[in-house]
Amino acid sequence: MKRPLTTPFRRTLLASLLLAAAPGAFAFSINVNFTGGLTASQQGAFTQAANFWQSVITGYQAGISLTGITIDASGAAIDGVGGILGQAGPSTIVNQGGYVLADTGTMQFDTADLANMQTNGTLVSVIKHEMAHVLGFGTLWDLNGVYVNGSGQYTGANALAAYQKEFVGQANAAFVPVELGGGTGTADGHWNEVDGGAGLTGIVDHQGRDMRNELMTGWLNSPTFVSNTTRMSFADIGYTVAAVPLPAAIWLFGSGLGLIATRKRRQAA
Fold first, then answer.
1. Can you point out the beta strands (E) in 22-152?
2. Reduced to 3 states, what is the DSSP secondary structure of residue 241?
3. Nearest-5° angle of CA 55, CA 264, CA 257?
4. How many Å apart are CA 219 and CA 12, to the nearest integer?
5. Which residue in 7, 13, 4, 6 sits closest to 186, CA to CA?
């Protein structure tokens, strides 16, 4: 049974990477319904982001009859240049197979910022980050029992197992650290950083990449990567996930938004 999700859309300011999946058919479908305010090339950026997540998520766990999600996407006036670039989240959710899942979602981007993001090469990155929240990253954790708001401790078994293996010295970790700073929309919905993203976390993967550079943290730090921990977190909330490809990460670095060179605070997501 569908019911509206009453929590506000999460909002983000993100400049990170462009990681496009190869074209082709996907078992898991992200259907983007464009409802106005976006040019043809901007709509193409949504397709690239959708292709990436369709290459990561292959379907659903047993007992779930869904085959994908429909997202309404649009450009609209929000707050002028800078500030909030986009807002996104699940619109309706369903209970199936013991999970709470997003069935439909909404993504809206500020028309005052779209051209600038496109010029800077960051639009796909912003869309990809927001789309992860529509799919349930950070937005449906509590409803799926993998996170208690305010605890800072993500305990989903699949992501935790990936985290223990992926990051040096975390083999006995009891949880994946979750951000508690940054205010509403950043806290409780991203992997943890320190000093508002300004300092290294000291949590490093076997390729030497610090956790602050992960795509789904609360602040941007380049070069950005998508961890297996993030990928496997979707298995904790009802999806099936593709094995991590080798090499583990392929990335192109974004140049920042506006006058920001290396870091932009995500005010919300």
1. 29-34, 57-60, 68-76, 86-96, 99-110
2. strand
3. 80
4. 9
5. 13
Name the β-bridge partners of 265: 219
Q: Cα Rg for the chain, rounded, in angstroms?
A: 17
DSSP SS3 for 71: strand
How many Å apart are CA 91 and CA 211, to the nearest integer? 30
Vertex 116: Cα angle to 115 and 120 (nearest 5): 120
Residue written as token pair 């997540």: 53
- According to DSSP, the β-strands at 29-34 and 153-154 are unpaired
**Reduced DSSP (H G I as helix, E B as strand, rest coil) percent helix, strand, coil of the chain, to 5:** 25, 25, 50
Report whether 22 contacts 245 (CB < 8 A): no
Q: What is the largest CA-CA distance in the chain?
A: 49
Short-list 234, 241, 14, CA closest to 135 = 234
Q: What does the pLDDT profile of the chain (269 residues) look like in tens digits?
A: 333 333 333 333 332 222 233 344 567 999 999 999 999 999 999 999 999 999 999 999 999 999 999 999 999 998 888 767 778 899 999 999 999 999 999 999 999 989 888 988 778 888 888 899 999 999 999 999 999 999 999 999 999 999 999 999 999 999 999 999 988 888 999 999 988 888 999 999 999 999 998 888 887 676 778 899 999 999 999 999 997 754 443 333 332 222 222 224 443 44
Cα separation, 23 vs 144, in Å, equals 31
Q: Six-digit token pair at 198?
A: 């300004």
State both tokens at 57: 């998520």
Across the strands, what pairs with 32? 71
